Protein 1
Amino acid sequence: MDKLDRLGWAAGLAFDAYGLRIGVRVNRPEALECLSERLPPGWKPSSSKIVDRLFSLWLGRPRGSARGYHLLYAGMVRRARTLSLDEALDTLESDLRQTVAAFSRDRVFVHAGVVGWHGGAILIPGRSYSGKTSLVRELVRAGAVYYSDEFAVLDGRGRVHPFAKPLSIREGALVRRCSAEELGGVCGVNPLPVRAIVLTGYRVAGHWRPVRLTPGQALLALLAHTVPVRRRPRSALRALQSAVSGAVVLKGVRGEADVAARALLARLGAEAPAVARAS
Amino acid sequence: MVTELMDEVLVYDLERHRAHCLNPPAAVVFKHCDGKRSVEDLARLLESELGAPADPDCVWLALDRLDKARLLSPRVRRPPAAGRVSRRDLIRRVGIAALLPVVTSLLAPTPAQAAATCVANCASQPFGTPCSSTAPANCLCACDGSGNCIGGC
């Protein structure tokens, strides 16, 4: 038995998400209460005692001169050692999402924002700080249905499933969580075919004048943001190929997100008959 | 792994985890490059399938690109007699840049690279400041000095 296993864990929970079973154990039962909000979207409780991945959260308690650090482990790897419980929980929440994205067996996760629009999905792949969430927020304000601001979850047919965690909106150094409802929008429920893929990033005083990419270029661009491509290249490529086959793919820098969102929806509206024919 | 997308081809190298997107001229050469056809045969195929002028230099350019991407086995060397023509000269000769073979390559990301998520803001941070990317473990990224994050996972 490993040293970590001997620490005296008091409670735990197991859940299934996107084909992966994850367990979280804690040293104080009350810690489980704060966990339910932090679990990945679409999680379902599991009664199994065997899990694919195990996280361990040790809540510290100041004792004498000891400061009582909170500790978080992913398997046997220490992921956080902090005096702030929020920081430990934030790291756990992020780790859980990334673990699901990396090890899901039946879905392909692409780092992208997603909204639904007129029965199709608009994918906005990109790295952190490329402005995905800002564009998603403005698209939701403009009437699109919120699907995700972090991952596009693709099935084998290239359809996008919701991963509707609260939007993480950066305001200076802070990150504010905001639900789609607070923006006047709604969260999507049903999987959607991909209608558009938008490769863009914010540039000061940038103008949204996108060019269209070929399916091959689009697939390569999506591949750069596909989480499990090295582990499951065949299923990832199959899902991506299905996703790009009926989609309009646009690439270009953008300026302010609200302007770009309106222009994007207007353009997709204008291209709707062509898209319908292509699909 | 070879995936055909209309007239393009995407090749995924399972050993090196590199993806290569071949535009239509490169795809035609790749599909018919079987070790039996001559450069002239391939040039004629380019002409019949894409309407490109039957120029052996276009085929050699495609072979160079495919070889550089390690998509040919055994590796191909242009004979000294074939000479080397610049891409600019070829565009002049062919007329349309789209008829020149292009191979675009990408190193497939690790999960950390694909899903790198920063938890700190790079605004006003100097170059190289770690912005403490979170999971997966060992993923690190840093600020570029212009307010952006550059992944270094």
Protein 2
Amino acid sequence: MIVRRLVDGVDERLDGTSFIRRNLGKVFPDHWSFMLGELALYSFVMLLLTGTFLSLFFVASPAETVYRGPYAPMQGSEVSLAYESVLRISFEVRAGLVMRQTHHWAALVFVASMTAHLVRVFFTGAFRKPRELSWIIGVTLLVAGIGGGFTGYSLPDDLLSGTGLRIIYSAVLSIPVVGTWLAYLFFGGEFPSAELIPRLFVMHILLIPALITGLLSAHLALVWHQTHTQFRPKGTPESSVTGTPVWPKFALKSVGLAFITFAVLAALGGLSQINPVWLYGPFVPYSAPSPAQPDFYAGWLEGILRLWPNWEFHVFGHTIGELFLPAVVIPGIIFTALALWPFIEARAKHDTAVHHDAQRPRDEPVRSGIGAAGIAFFVLLMLAGSNDVLAKYLQVEVDTLNGVLKVLLFVVPVLVYAITWWICRDLHARDSAPIAHPPRVEFRRNAEGGFDEHHDEARSRGDVAATQGDREQP
Amino acid sequence: MAATANTEARLLSRVLRVGLAVAVLGQIAWSFRPEPSSAQSDQQIQGRALYEANCSTCHALDAGGTVNGPSLLEVGPAAVDFMLATGRMPLANPNDQPERGQPKFTSEQIDALIAYVGSIAPGGEPIPTVDTSAGDLALGAQVFLNNCAGCHGAGASGDSVGGGQIAPSIYPASPTEIGEAVRIGPGVMPRFGPETIDQRDLDSLAAYLVWIRDNGDDGGLQLGRVGAVAEGLVAVVVGLGILIVVLRLTGAKR
Amino acid sequence: MKRDERVVAAALGVSILAALTLFVVYVRGGNPQAEGALLALALGGVGIGLLVWAKRLMPHIRDETQPRSKTAPATEADREAAVETMESGVEEIRRRRFLSRMLIGAAGALGLAALIPIRSLGRSPGDSLVHTKWTPGARLVTAEGTPVTESTLETGSFTTVFPEGFEGSADSQAVLIRVEPDQLQLPPDRIAGAPDGLVAYSKICTHAGCPLGLYLAATHELRCPCHQSTFDVLDGARPVYGPAPKPLPQLPIEIADDGSLRALGDFSDPVGPGFWEQA
């Protein structure tokens, strides 16, 4: 009865036609790989929940204080209020540490699942017209997610994150003409400035979450409005979509998935230590710990910085810093190319048609090859970004490892492209060719007691019906 | 608790050993006075035999060094003890990197070698006395983060430092070995004299390093204390991995 | 020009003037009342201009009656109509060329005035990146403020030093290393600043600005934990490996009569990674 009145009430107010029925009955294809984006969505929800809790205790101030909390090795040390509040969250606030660690793990899984989602969309061609806008919003979300992660990682004012900020400052500084001004405006003066933590805090808890929430809403509204792509079942037209109705099955599955995501993040948050800032110590500008890596989503950037040659350019009495190309230009090119990919591909293939079918990667050997090569490229860069840790475990020289990686960075993507292209083409050909039966050979006993080979041409043609027909004869 | 008792016992044995070594050296000096080549103590004879069998090939009979190994002149008891007690010496092959291992000699044999090397190559850094109970954890953390974490890692779990060298994990090191490493700077490590790391700093440093061996992992699994590399791997392989398995199990496959 | 048009033009003109004045006021140091009033004039001018424009200058665009419910997917004709609507609207505004130019001018002036508060975010770099706190005669002290003397370091040791009074200073941090004096291969004009095998370099990596935490005493190399740039301490901190493009600037020091170490001046070059204003 209540439901009835609710449904009527909404329908009467929102639309002349049945708004609720139309949307509740909307179907979504439920291929497993189409849910990767939901993982990102629910990681973000977890980030909002835990982040709200943390923001109640975090103090965004670089002001000095003396630590008097329970963590023995810091007692009596001069630390910033920001660092102190993070130790307080970790050791004094009830459930604080699990919240903090869940927040950090959620950030990593958020970016990881966005990346996995992007890879899925890429390999299935789901970015094609009319969904280019969704793709661009998605790439922007990835950048925003990385930005959110980096600003959050820097907030505790510990030694490790301070080192990361210093690198970003140096990258901004390297931009020609306006670099120094930009760096001073953004960082509030020469690094490290007292303005920094409050600014990062505002970006981390206001600007970036607002941007992500807005873009995410647009992203979801577009999927809802444009309908999801699918691997189309035989016998249905491309103008149709086959899947599970939102209510109740898809909704239950999706909410279930949300809780599984929360569960995994909470388990990680409680069981596995992440970013133990108490071990890193408070930020001082004259120390740096080692190994010094950023969170994994910036690992490829770290890799570029470690491998890039020591080129510094001097033009008209000015200096273009070494970092400008690897830290500003290259990432800019990569993200621009990524965002424009739907248009690049459409132009290359002269494809102006509207597509609603998800493709199988094997059906597009060139795109799949480029995608696989790209993944190989990023993985190699991430290995380069963790070269000192790798060298320790592999018992090799870091410098040798760097040399090898520099070569592999050019060789492996080409090889991966070729192999992927070849496998895709092969699989594609196998799919589209009629099922070929091997020539059939019979061995028949002859009068002498030996065997003769008998080749049966009719049976070798692969005509299944014919073969079955033959068998029925006695 | 057992570890602490063990450490203390080891510390005590070090102190005794240093005392013994001093006594022995005194006795040697005394016995050398009339006729340098005669009347060597048993320890001296044992040390000489061990030295000639295990060390002299590379470091030379007079400890002056050869192309295969550096001179031991002025290295001092701290260096000899550190290298032998941590199993870094003797090397099977002079081109190998000295790495921590099972000590090849008993502590009695090591004392004999220290005494013998001290007799043919006097001077150098004495074995430092390290008293963790006199140290302050907070000071130790500060000394560690400002002087050691750059190479050995903020979690003291070690890291590679280039040139094929690895700053090893400090967990297996005893307080005395930590003190010896600080004072002598083994391998590529710089040495820190009492002017930069004084006795109180040293006691505190050792106290902190003993402490973080078993503490500081309030957050759960320590993941090798290598930071973001391990964390990223866990997030992608375990976190995203489990979730993708769940998707595969609950979603359509075609 | 009709009266209504003059009103719009005047409103937009006031807006432009107010925005430009605001810009000037801001650059000259600012005044809260003037800023508020001018901002109100600049914004209000555009508001009034647009309202009067719409109300008085578009009498020929009349109200229409439309069905409420949503319609079927757009046809080709619908799309044409949409384009037509959009373009005719733009044309209606552009038709009054003077006013539309005024509008663009007002938007530009407002943008300029709105942009300048960004200047509040940071101070001018000036030459702050070129200088550090080191001055001739400054005593070398540790992070805790303990003065460093000629006997502090043994050969093979290093420590981090600051100018007295600026302990922990980010740009002035230097690493002081003692090596065998005859091993140093500095140029003649710089050897004097490294007495008795004591040599000091900026501790900030010239690649990305990380503090150089690793000193490999056996090979006399300073190494950066961030991206593994490696500098040869004996050879003027020349980069020998990794992405760092420049040597570490040297801090010339002397041993004073009382045995303390003092700076002879600032670093030989600007410290840290490269930036545009650097020669």
